[in-house]
Design a protein that fits this description.
The complex is a heterodimer of chains A (422) and B (146). With 422 residues, chain A is an alpha/beta fold. Chain A has helices at residues 2-7, 13-19, 47-56, 61-88, 118-133, 138-159, 181-194, 208-211, 219-230, 253-266, 279-288, 290-295, 307-320, 327-341, 348-370, 376-380, 384-388, 391-394, 416-421, and strands at 171-175, 203-206, 234-238, 272-277, 298-302, 324-325, 381-382. By secondary structure, chain B is an alpha+beta fold. Classes of the chains: A alpha/beta (422), B alpha+beta (146).
Chain lengths: 422, 146
């Protein structure tokens, strides 16, 4: 069946227009236009389904085969027609091997308008979304903006026939607890898919346990399994420094790192690896694994949030959970953040999340204790008393509390969670 | 003699891009993709060697293609097949299976006639590819696939 297709003359606009019988065959078309073009060769939906119907309806084999033959012929002519179309357009006389993605290469003198470009607008929209979703984090957003711009420029270069290679986008996120490393990594896959860098953009989030095996020969298949799952998307290795245990030379973590490095190099088109962790320990990790440090092109430091940013984050969280801070409570909460920031074990946005959870607990207790009729607003409103009930305010006059203070003595608010971390 | 087994077997050999497109189709249907290989192309040899475990959790075709490429490299003179298993209740069978790679030289088959009682004849197919002992034609020298 392949014989007629391969022996078909390689030329011929007329041949392709007759083969694509859906078009108006009576007219001499100047070139095989894109509209009645035959389906692209490896159309994923076609293969097995067509084969199955072909097998089931054996009695109608003849028409089936005829259409199949025509499809093959169409495909062959379409493939052969592409370079000719490119040259027929007078598009710089290239052979049109890259013509599958764009209709034709641009002439060297052609001028593009960036504002009209679909992808340029897309990038602007994505960055707008990012600005809204993530408060602060200026260096991180700058890097995303650069990556988006580079992908756009590469695509434009491709249209002129200039070489464009895909940049390696393995990243390392470092920063204090609660600065949004994991959250942004989760968003990164989606982001890179929208920018056209990744095909799928799914996130596979793993820690040491998922990569390192328990006995000899267990690590390699385990790591490869995870890597295959992450292909087409983002592999996030949280607290990556645990992979390497310098005190145990027989640790299988080293094996996992080696496989990881090999994959990062060989499959950098298919996979983005993001390592996340605290700065100081990550530095130690990179010192003992120089190969890893050099294969990661983007080291992004997440700065601590300022008081204003924390306030915005808290308000965003409250908005999502459909709570309201009364104006006075807002001031009290701001004061609370200022105090909490000076306390030990402060974890930026994560502390905000915890504080809000405890606010909700206190509000719920207040509502239940007061009894009587309640409305929708009562269920949404967080009052000054809810905020002031926090243990943090009790400690303002005293020195910063010693560790474990919450366990001795009854907590003044009667709320163990309040006492635990303020 | 060109072996025709599975889907697309009467088409020209699929390119890597086309193989990836098929694997992606299988993944999108929720089928588990597996890579198998053999050097015995007999039509009744349905259980080929498995190249690793079926890939249940992949979401991109490049992972499947990675295994196809690895299998090809380890067994350049074998047939490599991609199969996709549909685990849906009621179907639970191979939904798609096609040859992704074949040896450069396919010697074909010999028809053996065996004369049995009452001048009856039994026929069997003998693959020339299996003439030599299995150990001598193994690509990996007995090393197992990972």
């Amino acid at each position: 069946m392949s014989t007629p297709a391969s022996s078909m003359p390689a030329s011929s606009t007329p041949a392709s227009s007759t083969a694509a019988s859906s078009g108006p065959t009576g007219f001499a078309m100047p070139r095989p236009g894109p509209a009645p073009a035959p389906a692209p060769a490896p159309a994923p939906g076609h293969g097995p389904a067509a084969a199955r119907t072909g097998g089931a309806t054996a009695d109608r084999a003849t028409p089936e085969r005829a259409t199949a033959e025509r499809a093959t012929a169409e495909r062959a002519t379409a493939e052969r027609a592409t370079p000719e179309r490119a040259t027929a357009d007078g598009a710089g006389g290239k052979t049109g091997t890259e013509a599958s993605e764009h209709d034709a290469l641009l002439a060297p003198g052609a001028i593009l308008e960036l504002a009209d470009d679909r992808q340029a607008r897309l990038i602007a929209r994505i960055l707008g979304d990012l600005d809204r979703e993530f408060i602060g984090l200026a260096p991180v957003k700058d890097r995303v903006r650069e990556i988006g711009a580079l992908l756009l420029v590469d695509r434009l270069r491709g249209r002129y026939g200039l070489s464009s290679s895909r940049p390696s986008l393995h990243m390392c996120f470092t920063g204090s607890p609660g600065t949004g490393k994991t959250t942004l990594a989760a968003r990164m896959g989606e982001l890179l898919r929208e920018l056209g860098y990744l095909r799928r953009g799914q996130l596979v989030s793993v820690t040491r346990d998922d990569l390192v095996g328990q006995y000899v020969g267990h690590t390699a298949p385990k790591t490869k399994e995870v890597l295959k799952r992450a292909m087409g998307g983002v592999l996030l290795i949280d607290e990556a420094y645990y992979l390497y245990r310098p005190d145990n030379e027989r640790d299988y973590g080293q094996e996992a790192i080696e496989i990881l490095l090999q994959f990062m190099e060989a499959h950098r088109d298919d996979l983005v690896v993001i390592l996340a962790g605290y700065r100081s320990r990550m530095d130690v990790f990179f010192q003992s694994n120089p190969g890893m440090a050099s294969r990661i092109g983007h080291h992004i430091e997440f700065p601590d949030f300022s008081l204003d940013e924390l306030m915005q984050i808290a308000e965003l969280m409250l908005e999502r959970e459909e709570y309201l801070l009364a104006p006075a409570a807002r001031d009290a909460f701001r004061e609370y953040i200022g105090l909490r920031m000076r306390q030990p074990r402060f974890a930026n946005a994560r502390s905000m999340r915890n504080a809000i959870d405890r606010l909700r607990l206190r509000q719920a207790r207040r509502i239940v204790a007061s009894g009587g009729p309640i409305g929708r607003d009562d269920l949404m409103q967080l009052t000054v008393a809810d905020v002031r009930g926090s243990r943090v305010f009790d400690d303002t006059l005293a020195t910063p509390p010693p560790a474990g203070h919450s366990l001795d003595g009854p907590p003044p608010a009667g709320d163990p969670l309040t006492a635990l971390a303020g | 003699m060109r072996i025709t087994q599975g889907t697309f077997s009467y088409l020209p050999d699929l390119s890597d891009v086309e193989i990836m497109a098929q694997i992606q189709y299988a993944i999108d249907q929720g089928w588990a993709v597996a890579v198998e290989f053999t050097d015995d192309p007999h039509p009744r040899n349905v259980l080929w060697e498995m190249w690793g475990l079926p890939m249940f959790e992949i979401s991109d075709a490049s992972a499947g293609m990675h295994e196809v490429t690895a299998c090809r490299a380890a067994y350049p003179d074998h047939y490599v097949k991609v199969s996709a298993y549909d685990a849906t209740l009621g179907r639970q069978t191979t939904a798609l299976s096609f040859i992704a790679s074949r040896p450069a030289d396919e010697p074909g088959f010999r028809l053996d006639r065996q004369e049995v009682a009452d001048r009856r004849i039994r026929y069997s197919l003998h693959a020339y590819a299996t003439d030599r002992p299995a150990a001598a034609r193994s690509g990996l020298n007995g090393r197992s696939a990972t």
